[in-house]
Amino acid sequence: MGKLYAHGHGIGGHAAHGPESNRQLDPDAPTSSRNLEQIEKFPADLESNASDSKKHGHVHAHELSVVESAAAQIVGIAILEFGVILHSILIGLTLAVDKDFKILFVVLVFHQTFEGLGVGSRLAYMDLPAKYSYVPIIGALLYGITTPLGIAVGLGVRTTYNPGSTTASIVSGILDAFSSGILIYTGLVELLAHEFLFNKEMINGSNAKLAYAIGCLILGCGIMALLGRWV
After folding, report:
1. Cα–Cα distance between 146 and 95 in angstroms, integer?
2. Counting beta carbons within 10 angstroms of the beta carbon of residue 96, is it exposed (0 to 12), middle (13 to 18) or buried (19 or more)?
3. What is the mean pLDDT of residues 24-43?
């Protein structure tokens, strides 16, 4: 019976000795002492493994959130760029065929400057991983070439295009309405919401800073509305 009892302890000690245990036990120590050491060490091994798994899961979740954030920023700026590009092409086309070229040209210089500041600030503050670092550059280039592209198209069809015709008015009205809807959406959701609702500086800022920002917003809207009298 004594031999069977001792052998049973040996089996228990072997079962408790898992792959996580890397400490060498004293072979000359009594069997009960070795079992006690293994039992005391086993919860610590489990806690260490759980901690490593938790850290790995946290890193993986952080990587996914960064990718999702980058994708959301790219989609938002793409919608904004699409509306601005369509609007800029129509402006360039109008400039090329309009009789009041000088007045319209001066107005468009200011119009495109203010619009470019808005788009450029959004592109400059994009927080993207290194593999998406080209996105702001492409966005700036697309904005820079759209108005000249519209002017080139207008110059090409200047002799045949009649901006006062019924067909031209319908097409221009539909495209303007489409572009306006996109710009209103992106202005409210992608620009104002991000600058006022999700910006930590504005959330933690003083009332004076908030009032100053709202005043600048109203001033910008007023200037663009004034320029819209000619555009």
Report:
1. 13
2. buried
3. 50
Contact by Cβ (8 Å): 16, 45 = no
Nearest of 117, 133, 146 to residue 74 by alpha carbon: 133
Residue 19 DSSP class = T
| 91 in Cβ contact with 172 (< 8 Å) | no
Q: What is the mean pLDDT of the chain?
A: 73
Q: What per-residue confidence (pLDDT) applies to 52?
A: 52
- The answer to whether residues 16 and 35 touch, using CB atoms and an 8 Å cutoff, is yes
**Per residue in 102-157, pLDDT tens?**
778 888 888 888 888 888 888 888 888 888 889 999 999 998 898 888 888 888 87
b/e per residue 16-46 (b: at least 16 CB within 10 A): bbeeeeeeeeeeeeeeeebbebbeebeeeee
- Ramachandran angles phi, psi of 187, nearest 5°: -65, -40
Of residues 47, 11, 51, 48, the one with CA closest to residue 31:
11
CA pair distance 170, 176, nearest whole angstrom: 10
Determine the pLDDT at residue 121.
84
Query: Does the predicted model carry a pTM greater than 0.85?
Result: no
Residue 213 burial (CB count, 10 A):
16
**Count of other CB atoms within 10 angstroms of residue 112:** 21
Domain segments of the chain: what residues? 51-227
Question: What is the distance between the alpha carbons of residues 80 and 74, in angstroms, rounded to a whole number?
Answer: 10
- For residue 133, give both structure tokens: 């670092």
